[in-house]
Design goal:
210 residues, alpha/beta, globular
Length: 210
C-alpha cells in the first residue's frame, strides 16, 4: 500500500468485494470554470439557495464546465449507483457533471459537498473526506466505495482510512484523463500532476494525514 502511495501513477489496488459497499464517495479533479480564488462564490450561492438542485441550476446558467476528468468520475459514479443501488456523496464539481435529467431523477440518493463561502480557503482532499464521512454517518452508511482520479485515489483512500479506520473499496474503472483547459494546473497533464502530487504525499506522511 505504501509502495503504491509513493508512485501515484499506479493508482490503488482494486477491491474484489465491491458489492459490500453501501455508499459512494466521489472526489473532484480540477475544473474548467471558477479558479480557486472564486470558488467561494459557489459556497455563497449554496448558502443563499440552501438547495443542491437550485445551486446546480445556477452553475449551469453560468456555463460551468466541470472538465473531462470530472465528467468521467460522474459517469463512474452513475454506473455504480445503478449497479448497486446505493447513494452517493459527491464533491460539487461531480454533481455538476451529471446529466441534468438523470440527476433530477436520482437527486434523493445524491448528497453534494459544497465549498465554504469563506474567501481564500482551499477545499482540500482531507476536508472533502471529513465532510463525506460526516454525511455518510447521517445516512447510516459506513462502507464507502471511493471514486477519484487514478493519480489521486491512493492518497484519498489512505486519508479515509486515517479518518475512519477503514480502507475504502476501490472500483475497477478508475478515471485517468487530464484536461489541458483545467484551471488547476496540476490536473492538466500527468507530468504536472506528478510534480505536485509527490511532494503533497510526502507532506501528508510528515503531518500524519495518512
Amino acid at each position: 500500500m505504501l509502495f503504491r502511495y509513493m508512485f501515484p501513477s499506479l493508482g490503488a489496488r482494486k477491491s474484489r468485494d465491491l458489492y459490500k459497499g453501501d455508499v459512494i464517495f466521489a472526489q473532484a479533479f480540477g475544473r474548467n470554470t471558477f479558479p480557486d480564488s472564486s470558488v467561494f462564490a459557489v459556497g455563497v450561492m449554496f448558502d443563499e439557495f440552501e438547495d443542491d438542485e437550485k445551486t446546480l441550476e445556477w452553475l449551469r446558467s453560468h456555463d460551468f464546465d466541470p472538465g473531462i476528468p470530472n465528467k468521467e468520475i460522474a459517469k463512474a459514479v452513475k454506473e455504480l449507483m445503478t449497479r448497486y443501488f446505493i447513494p452517493a456523496i459527491v464533491q460539487w464539481e461531480i454533481a455538476a457533471a451529471f446529466d441534468t435529467e438523470w440527476y433530477r431523477e436520482n437527486k434523493k440518493r445524491i448528497t453534494c459537498i459544497w465549498p465554504t463561502k469563506e474567501r481564500n480557503t482551499y477545499f482540500n482532499t482531507n476536508e472533502v473526506n471529513v465532510l463525506s464521512l460526516q454525511a455518510a454517518e447521517k445516512l447510516g452508511r459506513s462502507n464507502p466505495i471511493e471514486v477519484a482520479h487514478k493519480m489521486q485515489i491512493q492518497r484519498a483512500a489512505l486519508i479515509i482510512k486515517k479518518l475512519s479506520g477503514k480502507f475504502p473499496l476501490i472500483p475497477d474503472d478508475i478515471p485517468k484523463s487530464f484536461d489541458e483547459k483545467s484551471l488547476q494546473w496540476w490536473t492538466r497533464t500527468i507530468w504536472a500532476c506528478m510534480f505536485r502530487e509527490i511532494p503533497t504525499r510526502m507532506y501528508h506522511i510528515l503531518t500524519g494525514r495518512i
